[in-house]
Specification:
CATH architecture of the largest domain: 2-Layer Sandwich
Helix content: 25-40%
CATH class of the largest domain: Alpha Beta
Largest sheet: 7 strands, mixed
Structural class: alpha+beta
Length: 457
């Protein structure tokens, strides 16, 4: 038997609250399945399980806050007899091979077959979309209902129904807050109402009427309406978030001997290449400059690998895969930095899709546990705010953070001639226990060199 624990979703996390279970006792799970939703002081995170088997018991109920490391559920490893997945399995995996059928007894008994669903992700999608699994025909091996089966049933369902599509947790939050689901605009699959949708409506009702504002950038921000007084729940939530960030940054500056470097990079080649590539694309398919900056940073790690990894128990542990954490500001204040996995190996188009997806899910509070615990180096970009340069604070246990300011026309001298070039100031905050100014300088030079040949990124 194995245990599923409350994971550490960041160096500053001490406790978490289970807001939703996507599995129940008796469900089969496999490595990579999303099985629970956990709320921290910063955001709401979808938590993956890293052991295959059968859920034997749910130990911590919905709504309970527990410390990191607490057993959330008991897992009977390999109890199902299903083949163990080899290596990581994506969270969107649809089904696993069925168990061996029961040998025939020679007597046929007419029964109504129950729907065969082996993936918690599929079951959650059906519940969130208001789909009755008993009416869905499974096309997976052995009649297993897959994600595609649920999506097809959703597409075929008549739009007007008397029952509002909503996830079970959204219904519970709506009941607690007195929100009529019929008045909520759903943003989930097929227009299903999610928890974030309900919270947004509740927050809107708690503040004076005003012009519509942009959506919250995380589940935390969904509870932070503008112009809220100091005694509100939103103010308390904001104060808690600020304390968590402040404690982590204080720890970082106290324990990590930072050193800082900066360099100015000529961005003419990158700007012209980006303009050329985007000329034949629709607005939704265009690349943005931050994608080039992320990719160049990830690729530069190959030159100076000691920038990528963790300082654990006084010893540096390098990581082969580059998982760049992207700093995302929260609407009410504060910042989170979830990871884009395997950033160095993604093509620019795929990286653009991944970045857009990450920001979108951050806005509705649906980040995943691996995205919060996996970043090996962080990039922060404040160029869109008009900032010339940013000197960041390292996120422990990481050992480096790269910052970028705005790309702007500035005086530039080359071959004795003075002109204007688009440039950006890149900065590095690094851990002196792992690297030094010489190695840091090589790292920034590698980023510069890569940005001079954007077509090769």
């Amino acid at each position: 038997m194995g245990d599923f624990h409350m994971p550490s979703l960041g160096a500053d996390m001490e406790v978490g609250r289970v807001t939703e279970w996507l599995v129940k006792a008796g469900d089969e799970v496999k490595r990579g399945d999303i099985v629970a939703v956990v709320e921290t002081e910063k955001s709401t995170i979808e938590v993956e399980i890293f052991e295959s088997g059968v859920i034997e018991a749910i130990v911590v109920p919905v709504g309970e806050e527990v410390p990191v490391g607490t057993v959330l559920a008991r897992v009977q490893s390999g109890a199902s007899g299903a083949p163990e997945a080899r290596g990581p399995v994506p969270a969107s995996s649809e089904s696993i091979l069925p168990t061996e059928p029961t040998p025939p007894t020679g007597r046929e008994v007419a029964t109504t077959a129950a729907p065969v669903v082996r993936s918690p992700v599929v079951r959650h999608l059906a519940a969130e979309s208001g789909i009755d699994l008993a009416a869905v025909t499974g096309t997976g091996e052995g009649g297993v209902i897959t994600r595609h089966d649920v999506e097809r049933a959703l597409a075929a369902q008549q739009p007007p129904t008397s029952r509002v599509r909503a996830s079970p947790w959204a219904r519970r939050v709506a009941a607690e807050r007195g929100v009529d689901l019929n008045s909520v605009q759903g943003t989930g699959p097929g227009g299903a109402v999610t928890e974030a949708d309900v919270r947004k409506v509740g927050a809107a009702r708690s503040r004076p009427a005003a012009a519509p504002s942009e959506p919250a950038v995380a589940a935390v921000a969904a509870e932070l309406p503008a112009n809220t007084g100091p005694t509100s729940d939103a103010a308390a939530k904001q104060a808690s978030l600020r304390r968590a960030i402040g404690a982590l940054m204080a720890r970082s500056k106290r324990e990590i001997p930072h050193y800082y470097l900066s360099t100015t990079i000529d961005m003419r080649a990158a700007s012209e290449w980006l303009e050329h590539v985007n000329a034949g694309r629709s607005i939704t398919d265009r690349l943005v400059m931050p994608v080039l900056l992320l990719k160049a940073t990830a690729r530069a790690v190959a030159t100076v690998p000691e920038m990528n990894g963790f300082m654990i128990d006084g010893r540096f542990e390098a990581r082969a895969a580059v998982q760049v954490g992207v700093a995302i500001s929260l609407r009410g204040g504060g910042v989170i930095a979830p990871a884009i996995h395997d950033t160095a190996t993604l093509g620019l188009n795929d990286l653009m899709v991944a970045l857009r997806d990450l920001v979108t899910r951050a806005r509705v509070g649906r980040l995943r546990s691996s995205e919060m615990s996996d970043p090996t180096i962080t990039v922060t970009n404040l160029g869109d705010l008009g900032v010339d340069q940013v000197f960041g604070v390292i996120y422990p246990p990481q050992v480096a953070l790269v910052g970028f300011g705005k790309v702007a026309e500035r005086p530039w001298a080359e071959d004795g001639l003075l002109g204007a070039r688009p440039t950006v100031t890149a900065t590095l905050a690094a851990d002196h226990r792992v690297s030094d100014g010489h190695r840091g300088g090589l790292f920034l030079s590698a980023i510069d060199r890569l940005l001079q040949a954007p077509e090769e990124l």
